[in-house]
Amino acid sequence: MSSCTARRRDLRLVPVAVVAWGAAGIATQVPTASPGIAAGLWAAVAAVLVVSRWMPSSTRATAALAAVALACAAAVAGHVALAQPTRAAASALDVDGGRVLTVEATVVGKVERSAVGWRFDAVTDRIAYGERAFTAPVPVLVRADDAPPGLDLGARVELRGTAFRAEAGDRPVLVIQGGSTLRVRAPPAGPLAAAADLRRGLHAAVAGLPQPAAGLVAGLAVGDTSEVTADLDAAMKTASLSHLTAVSGANCALVVGLAFAAAAGAGARRGIRVTAGLVALAAFVLLVSPEPSVVRAGAMAAIAMLGVLLGRIGAGVSVLALAVTILLVVDPWLAGSLGFALSAAATASLLLVAGPLADGLSRWMPRPLALALAVPLAAQLACAPLIVLIDPRVAVYGVVANLLAAPAAPAGTVLGLAACLTAGVPLLGPGLATIAWLPSAWIAGVAGTFAALPGSSAPWPEGPPGFALLAVTGACATALIVPRSGPRLRRAAALVLAALIGVGVAVGPVATLIDRATVPDWAIVACDVGQGDAVLLRSEGRVALVDTGPDPVPLRACLDRFGVERIDLLVLTHFDLDHRGGMDAVVGRVDVVLHGPPATPEDDAVLAALASQGAAITAGHAGLSGSLGAAGWRVLWPRAADRAFAPGNDAGVIVAVEGGGIPSTVLLGDLSASAQLGLLATGRVPADVAVVKVAHHGSADQEPALYARLAPQIALVTVGENTHGHPREEILKVLHALGAAVLRTDQGGAVALWTADDGIHVWRAETSAPVVSRQ
Known about the structure:
InterPro entries: ComA-like_MBL, ComEC_N, Competence_DNA_uptake, Metallo-B-lactamas, RibonucZ/Hydroxyglut_hydro. Residues 220-481 form the ComEC/Rec2-related protein domain. By secondary structure, this protein is of the alpha+beta class. It folds into 4 domains: 3-91; 96-189, CATH 2.40.50.140; 194-451 and 459-472, no CATH class; 519-772, 4-Layer Sandwich (Metallo-beta-lactamase, Chain A). The chain has 25 helices and 26 strands. The strands form 4 sheets. A 9-stranded mixed sheet has the order 16-15-14-13-12-11-24-25-26, covered by helices on one side. A 7-stranded mixed sheet has the order 17-18-19-20-21-22-23, with helices on one face. Strands 1-3-5-7-6 form a 5-stranded mixed β-barrel. The longest helix has 35 residues, at 57-91. 47% of the residues are buried.
């Protein structure tokens, strides 16, 4: 059989996967239509089968494939239709208005640290409020401030909190905000408890090793990132290495391969070798935690093992398409999962593109180096367009960083896994953990080095235009490298790529100059840094920055856009990642730091890094005041030596600024309603201010009386794409009732304000003309 014929046969199941994926996307986005979709698809299957009886034999295979694709799509829609009544009943619960619910649930997903607190997937046992109780099981996403002992996969938990409905297409029906009320009713039992004990043993084995690599050992071995520092996590994302701590098909394939090789070394037959691989795979999935992403990776590895058993190792694309189809039938909500799309895209690129890329690169370099470079390059070209949909930037050094880190990843996984399994054995477990630290330290060093390089990531257009632009760029680059591309195609690709680069180079600086010329007199800027805070204040050339957002890249872009070179005063309200994650953009150019109470050694390290570059460090508390140019600032909160609120949101530094061209402004950090009441009781809150930075990105946990006292003309909501439902309708109603103009950074980008004779002028990054507020 020719290679072309084999390749066509490999691709036969791709339309089946594509149709199933499309049906899953439509059915989950419009679940009320899923019964009708399923019925229509089954009718289409019957029609194709009937019509195919009179078709020529040459076209019957195509008709059969179409029937299979339609049947899989019908199965997907049918799954959604069966789940819809229960999901609709849960969605119809009266959760509006900040109603407090009591929720009992079972943890079904990995417990992960988020920018604020912890999060995990769960299935409810009971939801109660007032006299009503809802007992049908539905998937929910739980957010909590703390992770109490025993909180792990399989644990039964109880919490009190508020909720809001998840977006259409999401697997969770509700998002539960539990605050600090979460308690574990029953820890995991049986095999899940044994797996949790092994993971805890691994954490104990690396506890004394140097950070940040120590926290990375468990991430490489079992995908547990709970101990990965926020700075290392940000660096790995910037260097395009975060996939190394996600349990993927590569991890599963490594475990299966080791078991398969061990059985082969013992002389076992192929069936026994495959069985050994599958048993090892099942044990690994249980150890890591059988959450959807891990089960997905395991399913792909299991189907690949089936290909081995059948002697069809080469049918890689067919195996991938079959895995995608089966997973969508079992879990249609994967259709909207970026992780699922990235996994499929990366695997497909390795199967289809890595080989041709290696052939092309080998014209300019040794074959082994070409092969090593082709793998990360293929994955980067396939995944980058998807990543920019949620993170509009491109990792400039991603391919090189992956090339350097890739050899250490398998060693870290194997050694870390061995340390996990032997953690309770004296000397052996800790010894293996120490050895596993070495490849982890290498990967952490690569991430930190490349993330710190100038231009480590480049901003990119957001949304579908950014996806399309990067996909075209990647396709052109591939056409230039792959030797099978004809000369005409290569010339066209070169012209398109040159045009894209030329436009990007020309438009970037020009756009920056235009932006600066548009807002020469700004006094306040709410930077568009996503789900986080970064607010600039300026008077007579002196600049203050309140918080740094979650990431240095968008903060650097904002500082450059508004011509900020030096920061006279940096206010770190508190140390959550969404308020200090962009620190790398300002280290070395800050004079004075005013900060909230640190809670961890990591917080102290942030201050030490600023101090080492010449910044004066001062703890913020009520009563402190100072000047910024001709403006004056004063700290309203927290109260000195106040222990009523722990370090974090409610002990954050709250600042009022006024004068010198800056409209009277209060920046409320992330204060909750209870802390807002405490602030109001101090008597320091000014009345009738011009601008308020709304607390906590517009969460529902707000005190209307504080906003009534402030009575702002303009309310700035620093918010990005999020799953919290921010800004919530509750606070928006309060602000609108006060007559405030609500300006959100997720709607129109950055906001600049300045005063003039006719009032406060408002400039939006995505609006051509300024708007004048009421005086």
